[in-house]
Hints:
The chain has helices at about 15, 20-25, 25-65, 110-120, 125-130, 145-155, 170-175, 185-200, 200-230, 230-245, and strands at about 70-75, 80-85, 135, 165-170. It is mainly alpha-helical and about 250 residues long. It has one domain (about 15-230). It has a two-stranded antiparallel sheet with strand order 1-2. Strands 3-4 form a two-stranded parallel ribbon.
Amino acid sequence: MKIQASPLSFETEATSGPYRRYIDERKHFYFFKRVFDLGISIILFVGVFSWLFPLLALIIKLDSRGPVFFVQRRVGRGGKSFLCYKFRTMVVNPDANTTQARENDIRITRIGNFLRKSSLDELPQFLNVLFGDMSIVGPRPHMHADCNRFSVLVSNYKFRSLVKPGITGLAQIKGYRGPTTTYQSIFRRYQYDAFYVRNCNFWLDMRIIRKTAWQTLAVIFSKVRLFNKPPREIFADTIEAEMEMSANPIRYTA
């Protein structure tokens, strides 16, 4: 049965109750969080993005036709809509604003697959941080269609929108990235997002940023090692893995 999502509305007990007052009373924390966001963003744009963005833009253009950036309306703090920037990771298609990317999605380009797995496709969202629509750390911003659908499935789902959405968040460092295809994945992400909203502080933000940087570098260097590996070694590793799976079939079945 297809679930019909109701229009986006944030007049709920979660957003108008004691937690809303709790968020509003933490003005000093959010002021310093904003200063930190601006400082880090400016440093990255001057020191890293000034050469990395043109390089990635060139690779994206050579890989497939279409614009370098993918711009989409996402749900921000309090349900306000904003334009979210990403590096384009798919071929241009009419379903981009309504249909989530899936595992092995044929719309994803070759470079797009790497950008998604390493989270480098999210780097243009530092522009959103500069504009004030996002923070470096916070719950990930959803498409409006997804936010409507998830709000039907999870009670008080819009509670996560009490704070600015982030480039990375607690759910992401816990492994909840990519498509949300099951109720469990939707609910677990919401649990981590709700925990962050209730407990956000400077040291939690630093931990999330550190873990995100480590995970991103791990993906990048794992790709580099694979590219530098001789074909004979890759072939030997594949045969060894297949032999292990044949010897232990139960271990590798769900």
